[in-house]
Amino acid sequence: MATDFLSKAVEALGGVDVFVTNAGICPFHAFLDMPAEVVDRTFQVNLHGAYYMVQAAANQMVKQGKGGSIVAVSSISALVGGEFQTHYTPTKAGVHSLMQSAAIALGKHNIRCNSVLPGTILTEINKDDLADTEKRDRMAARVPLGRLGEADDLAGPIVFLASDMAKYVTGAALLVDGGAFVNLQ
Ligand code: RM4
Fold it and tell me: What is the pLDDT of residues 127-142, one digit of tens each?
């Protein structure tokens, strides 16, 4: 599956120098009656998917022999919890940790591995959850920059980590959260 995707990318693009793994789901659900199938699916998409895609991209980059840059979209949820995200936060912590280990394994090939840790970004992943305007306002109130994020807020940090501007950056994790993580009071 992952190698098929990479083969198609190589066919279309002539090679892979930068790879961004972003796929993720977060079906919000209470912990005590969390269905096993919800846990398993979330792990399969968020962690296993990231693992095998990063592995496939890395093997292609090694084959090319020119190094490369891999960026994973982890989350602020790698560092903090959520009552209705007990199945989700471990996957984001796993993606964060995967990139640290991949950075070590791939440094000899001049392949850099880093992650971005978005805060609450308005996307399909949380459209239903944030339809609750009270929760949406509460989440925005936690953010020192005064607003929830948008997909465009991730573009610059990802391009930075992917580019030669970050040529000596690997194993890093970049919070892109408007300051939410550090905002205790
Ligand atoms: C993020 C963070 C956000 C949530 C999304 C689904 O990691 O927890 O608050 O809206 O996941």
Answer: 999 999 999 999 999 9
Measured from the Cα of 76, ligand 1's closest atom is: 7
Ligand 1 pocket residue status of 120, Cβ below 6 Å:
yes
Does this model's pTM top 0.85?
Answer: yes
Neighbours of 4 (CB within 10 A): 9
75 is catalytic: yes
Instruction: Convert the pLDDT of each residue in 72-100 to its tens digit.
Output: 999 999 999 999 999 999 999 999 999 99
Pick from 80, 91, 121 the residue to mutate for probing ligand 1's pocket: most ligand atoms within 8 Å of its CB: 121
Quote the ligand 1 centre to 90 CA distance (angstroms). 13
How far is CA 99 from each of CA 5, 20, 54, 71, 150, rounded to the nearest angstrom? 20, 12, 9, 8, 24
Note whether 98 and 130 are within 8 A (CB): no
Does domain 37-56+66-176 fall under CATH 3.40.50.2300? My reply is no
Domain boundaries, the chain: 37-56+66-176
